[in-house]
Design a protein that fits this description.
Number of domains: 2
Helix content: 40-55%
Strand content: 5-15%
CATH class of the largest domain: Alpha Beta
CATH topology of the largest domain: Nucleotidyltransferase, domain 5
Number of helices: 11
Strand order of the largest sheet: 3-2-1-4-5
Structural class: alpha/beta
Radius of gyration: 26 Å
CATH superfamily of the largest domain: Ribonuclease H-like superfamily/Ribonuclease H
Organism: Ooceraea biroi (Clonal raider ant)
InterPro entries: RNaseH_sf, Tc1-like_DDE_dom
Distance between the termini: 50 Å
Protein name: Tc1-like transposase DDE domain-containing protein
CATH architecture of the largest domain: 2-Layer Sandwich
Number of strands: 5
Mean pLDDT: 86
GO molecular function, one term: nucleic acid binding
């Protein structure tokens, strides 16, 4: 190959790279496969060009819908939390974060990431549609470095049944928590209807005084803010991955898996890290004026 051929090859390579980069500039969600079909360029060549330009494929992050009226409420809560931690650096360890989640027979199953390694195809299957469904409603709490629960609530939770839980069952769940934490802890509730029921708010006012966070509480919990509570941004996803690692066969099996998984997670060192991370999340939320924020590790 002479010098002239080298120049022609370099020009072809540059033009091809420009076509590829222009396509992804205009449609950054384009897949390599479709780009290959559209440009009639091999997938490997497209991938090499994108890597050479320091471009990477990033996944979407699912987020809770926020309304414009939510932004200020989120900032107000985050400012309150940051100020409370600044006044008392142990404050973050005194909040009992709580939530409920529904676990079903179907659970979660990602076929793209689930494999069976074998010399020959075992033709493994996993059922997805069932004639007989079952579910359970699970309450959990996180207090500093420990998990509280699980407790299985009625499938249809209302204000009175939740008040009975707070009055009769929560104290039993908290028995192993040191007295200092029980006497000084705050409790956080989201804004679901059973939490906002009058009998629940009356009970909280009587037994928790000013130390509760929630809809209608002395400290208002901002709606649509799962990115600020450890159970939503950490616990439920981690727990469900453990529970649904294999197919669930019965309601009793489902409940036992939840209980066993929580017991196993009690030994993790992550709980303290997760609850402490709420401060960083609040600061990030303030920086973007209450809108969606991205946590950087």
């Amino acid at each position: 190959m002479n010098e002239y051929d080298d120049v022609r090859s370099a020009l072809r390579h540059r033009r091809r790279s420009e076509r590829i980069l222009n396509l992804f500039d205009n449609t950054p969600t384009q897949s390599v496969r479709r780009a290959s079909a559209q440009l009639q360029i091999s997938r490997n060549a497209i991938s090499r060009t994108l890597r050479a330009d320091d471009r990477f494929a990033y996944h979407y992050t699912p987020v809770q819908e926020l309304l414009p009226i939510d932004y200020q409420k989120r900032v107000e809560f985050c400012n309150w939390y940051v100020n409370a931690v600044e006044r008392d650096n142990l404050f973050s360890s005194m909040i009992l974060w709580t939530d409920e989640a529904t676990f079903t027979r179907r659970g979660i199953f990602n076929s793209h990431n689930s494999h069976v390694w074998a010399h020959n195809n075992p033709h493994t299957t996993r059922q997805r549609n069932f004639q007989h469904e079952f579910r359970c409603n699970v309450w959990m709490g996180m207090l500093h470095d420990r998990l509280i629960g699980p407790f299985f609530l009625p499938d249809r939770l209302n204000g009175e049944s939740f008040r009975r839980f707070l009055s009769n069952d929560l104290p039993i769940l908290m028995e192993n928590v040191p007295l200092q934490f029980r006497q000084n802890s705050w409790i956080q509730l989201d804004g679901c209807p059973s939490h906002y029921a009058r009998q629940v708010r009356n009970w909280l006012d009587e037994h928790c005084a000013h130390r509760w966070i929630g809809r209608g509480g002395p400290v208002f919990w901002p709606p649509r803010s799962p990115d600020l509570t450890p159970l939503d941004f950490y616990l439920w996803g981690t727990l469900k991955n453990k529970v649904y690692s294999t197919e669930v066969i019965s309601l009793e099996d489902l409940k036992q898996r939840i209980t066993n998984s929580v017991t196993e997670m009690q030994h993790f060192q992550e709980c303290r890290t997760v609850t402490n991370s709420v401060l960083r999340r609040c600061l990030a939320c303030i920086d973007v004026q209450g809108q969606h924020f991205e946590m950087r590790h």
